């Protein structure tokens, strides 16, 4: 095996097969970060003014409605901070949606409860049908693809859009952001918007019919975006989002408690990051999250490398998680081991709508630019 080469600016390396380096040893993800930073991050282009204009428009549009906006809340830093901004800083009347997929840690549940109570935000919790969801999750494990979090991510996304349409709430204010999330190799994680991919995998490996799982086709999405005019507002791209500061504020003002890892609010996610991906695929997602923090000058490259030298999780906790995940999914040790050693597959090994999504990206861009222009 050839030696692993690391970018000279961030901490991405040749475990991402699409990585290429320029003459200074800087990787394509760094260049991509700089591009996205210029295009999607509004902080340096009068972001505050733009955001104020946008907030005024949201308030005006919501005047005769019960809610100004919809937010998703997982209990993690980004979504909790969005709840804080929306209510406390901008005074918007928000409805919060929480997805319960059966894997939330007790701490996540406590954090969500504290936040909505302290901020006085209405909360609607959607509980996925466990039998259906378990069947989808096991299908993804059997499919041997890297992104087994797609069923959860897709359900949240579909639920937010459908709820916004149902209650006629035109704005979904979301915590996805350039600063901490923009470096992610496509080969590591295929996106979660593609319901054709989910259906194909479930059809091949699933055992029960899906009746209630929230999902959206590409055409549904275009309909909600263009006809129903539901707008997605990535609010953290308009402000100077410093993760550690946000965390500190949440701890002080909302009694929020830290999980000790990105997206560790769910036990399944923790297991996915700390075991499934590194062991089965050799992917360490900490590299991408830390690289985004390095590129946005929130930590030094040396500190990021130090962080990567540590084990991703305490071995005792990992053992607990593994036992819990297997038991909850109803898999024996042997069954799970067999799933791990199955040859790894790519998303393109299954039916998918990747090219359709690519072809429609211009529609999405126009809709996004429209939001920016009305400001
Ligand atoms: Zn780099």
Care to describe what's here?
This protein has 375 residues and is α/β, with parallel strands linked by helices. 54% of the residues lie in helices and 7% in strands. The chain has helices at 28-40, 47-61, 77-89, 106-119, 130-143, 150-166, 178-181, 195-205, 218-227, 243-254, 267-281, 285-295, 301-309, 315-329, 333-341, 354-374; strands at residues 69-72, 94-100, 122-127, 171-174, 231-234. A 5-stranded parallel sheet has the order 3-2-1-4-5, sandwiched between helices. The longest helix has 21 residues, at 354-374. The model has no long low-confidence stretch (mean pLDDT 91). Zinc ion binds next to helix 1.
Please provide a brief summary of the model.
With 375 residues, the protein is of the alpha/beta class. 54% of the residues lie in helices and 7% in strands. It has helices at residues 28-40, 47-61, 77-89, 106-119, 130-143, 150-166, 178-181, 195-205, 218-227, 243-254, 267-281, 285-295, 301-309, 315-329, 333-341, 354-374; strands spanning 69-72, 94-100, 122-127, 171-174, 231-234.
Major beta sheet, specifics?
Answer: 5 strands, parallel
Structural class of the secondary structure composition?
A: alpha/beta
- Low-confidence stretches at least 5 residues in length (pLDDT < 50)? none
Number of strands: 5
Mean pLDDT: 91
Chemical compounds bound to the protein? zinc ion
What spatial order of strands do you see in the largest sheet? Answer: 3-2-1-4-5
Gyration radius from CA atoms, angstroms: 20 Å
With helices defined by DSSP (H or I, 4 residues minimum), what is the helix count?
16
